[in-house]
Design goal:
The protein is of the alpha+beta class. 15% of the residues lie in helices and 26% in strands. It is elongated, with a radius of gyration of 23 Å. The two termini are 33 Å apart. 41% of the residues are buried.
Length: 423
Amino acid sequence: MDHSHFLSEHGELTRRFFLRAGAWGLAASQLTVNAVADESARAAQKKHVKPDKGGVRPDPYFTPSEDFRDVSRGKPLPHSLPDEKKAEVGLTRETWRLEVISDLDNPAKIGKPLTEVDGTAFDFAALLKLGETQAVRFPKVMTCLNLGCPLGMGLWEGVPLREVIWLTKPREDLRRVFYYGYHNDDPAQMFRSSLPIGRVLEDPFDLPPVILCYKLNGEWLDSERGGPVRVVVPEAYGFKSIKWLSHVVLTNLAHANDTYAEQNNDVDSPLKTFAATITIPKEVKAGEAITVSGYAQVGISGLSKVQVSLESNATERPENDPHFTTAPWVDAELLPAPLNWTALSDGRVPEQTHGFDGAGVPKTWPLRLTNAHWAAVIPGLPAGEYTFRCRTIDEHGHAQPMPRPFRKSGHAAIESIGITVAD
């Protein structure tokens, strides 16, 4: 995969930092191919090529829809169906219908189910009508529980799921909501997620609401991204944000019944905070400064700093230090918010976006549940073989991969990258 365009974008983001540090010449040689080769590669492309590192695009900050990585399920993938089939099964804005019903096996008491059979299923026009007064939007990185690279960063817009649930007039015995989307008319392909009803009805810890999403970056949600309507759960990994939504089921079930749990995953684990590298040299000269840069996923616990270490391979590591707490960590620099938001239609973050003020400026930085970017210049070292590592420190002082180091609750492993310092 040609990722020169992606690297050039990251280079532009880090250029100001390396210029201040007096290391731009070194950084530029490590970042990407020259502009002529970059243009030639782009001209030779016969189709759109998605960027490396899972759609993480430092500039523009929000990932264009076509650059998201896709890990959709289904054979065939629902977004690949012919247009006439999409219309037939409700995968267009004109034909989309949402049933909101009680669970037959563990019924919740509701007064007015929304069903196709009685003509009360919720449609797209009704969703947009709710959106006139109830629409919300927020930035969120979309990522998979078991992947180290995000799928992409988006500005997601929709109506809180609770607004539609209230239309069913629920009364009691409602403890959980589960939901699923279109699955090729094949019950064996159903992919289901669930949430406690308390999370749907109330937004804890200043989180945005769980939404029925119909826009991404100000544009209609396309079929590959789960359109016409998907669920988006702000603090959760992607498997909670079901695509091609068709059914919401209100249940008295007390536990999660997510499809993803069948693969030994922790289905209630929110996004973790961790760091990863984007640019780093494989070999440098002895005494020459080393420029590195990368991104950090800002999870539910926030981000206070990114740290880096470069340790000689001759150093004997303690056996009881699996998370490299004794490594020679030094602070990297967290890069500021972008100067523009060019992936959005008018280059501005709309008013009333969660986490931004009325002028479209982030209220805090970095924003939780999104990506941040970092850079560092490490002083020159003697010749030898070294290992580079990076980690985050969250807002509670926990160093990656703590406080949740377990793999099946989300990726947070510390990278180890070899560097040769040559004479």
